[in-house]
Amino acid sequence: MKQVAWAVAVLGLLCLGARAAEAQDQRPTGVDLKQNRPNPFNPATTIPFSLNGDVFANGHRPRVSLRIYNVIGQLVAVPILQGAGVPLDNVELDCSSPSGCDFSAYWDGKVLNSNREAPSGVYLYQLVVDGQRFTRRMLVLK
């Protein structure tokens, strides 16, 4: 019973954190984390995000990570940056457009370091750009 109560408490905190992060996403920061497509999904999804030109000002190359967590806060996966084919883990991004660039990451729906598909449920994905965090929710539906 204590484990169920603990899981419910953690889920509540994560949801509150995701709502707060979504509210933070609305302030002008130069980062726009978009809703994954499709959502719900099975077995794979794409996570789009944009960085405006201010993020790249004066030749700056932001460090970017994207991680997927389950509702109890465990790391589930690190998606692949589309076009580069590398895990989006502390990657320096570049943009040649003064107005900014659009990026996307791909998750095959598999759990990190295994060939096992993630079970149905709610997952949180968190984009970190130069230490700033942006979080959204997605749904795996089998």
Keywords:
single chain, alpha+beta, Immunoglobulin-like, 142 residues, 5-stranded antiparallel beta sheet, 38% strand
Query: Which regions contain 5 or more consecutive residues with pLDDT less than 50?
Result: 4-11, 23-27
CATH architecture: Sandwich
- Given helix and strand content, the structural type is alpha+beta
Please tell me the overall pLDDT. Answer: 87
Tell me the fraction of residues in β-strands, as a range: 35-45%
Q: Provide the CATH topology.
A: Immunoglobulin-like
Largest sheet: 5 strands, antiparallel
Helix content: 10-25%
Order the strands across the largest sheet as they lie in space.
1-2-8-5-6
Describe the secondary structure blueprint for this structure:
Layout: H1 2-25, E1 31-33, E2 45-52, E3 63-70, E4 75-77, E5 80-81, E6 86-87, E7 91-92, E8 100-107, E9 121-129, E10 132-140
Antiparallel strand pairs: 1-2, 2-8, 3-4, 3-7, 3-9, 5-6, 5-8, 9-10
Please, could you describe this protein's structure?
The radius of gyration is 16 Å and the shape is elongated. The strands form 2 sheets. The chain has a 5-stranded antiparallel β-sheet, with no helix packed on it. By secondary structure, it is α+β, with helices and mostly antiparallel strands. It has a single domain, classed as Immunoglobulin-like (Sandwich). It has 1 helix and 10 strands. A hairpin with a 4-residue loop joins strand 3 (63-70) and strand 4 (75-77).
